[in-house]
Amino acid sequence: MTVLIDTVAWVRVENGRILCARPRGKDVFYIPGGKREAGESDLQTLLREVEEELTVAIVPSSVSHAGTYEAQAHGHPDGVVVRMSCYYGDYSGTLTVSGEIDEMTWFSFADRPLVPPVDQLLFDDLRASGELR
User: What are the sequence ranges of the domains in the chain?
Assistant: First the structure.
């Protein structure tokens, strides 16, 4: 039986690098975002998670779908799959880590091994499209 973890992520690429964050106590970096709460739309999840993690507000009118990816969930038993619905979007405010994030950084394609399998699929597509150096 497959267990699905449903997540939404914010794809922010600047100067050929993508914004990634390492949650408190974790050993890998993730694309900012997180799990959907009951009844939330993708947009609601995106706005809430990004504000919780990086203290900025996503501009709802700027949000566009970047792709949806599925892969084995990092650190979970076989058969646990994460689905990551990814969105581009502009933001207002200053990027700052919150209490649940230990570190944020900008990764190039060379940093791909530092993110989990589902994020690596996004890295591959961004590299193929020329967005990620």
Answer: 3-128
CB-hemisphere CA count at 13 Å for 2?
A: 10
H or E segment and range at residue 127: helix 117-128
What tens digit of pLDDT does each residue of 71-107 get?
A: 999 999 999 999 999 999 999 999 999 999 999 999 9
Q: Environment class of residue 115 by beta-carbon count within 10 Å: exposed (0-12), middle (13-18) or buried (19+)? A: buried
pLDDT computed for residue 59 by the predictor: 98
State whether the Cα torsion 84-88-91-97 is positive or negative.
positive
CATH code assigned to 3-128: 3.90.79.10
What is the Cα Rg of the chain in Å?
14
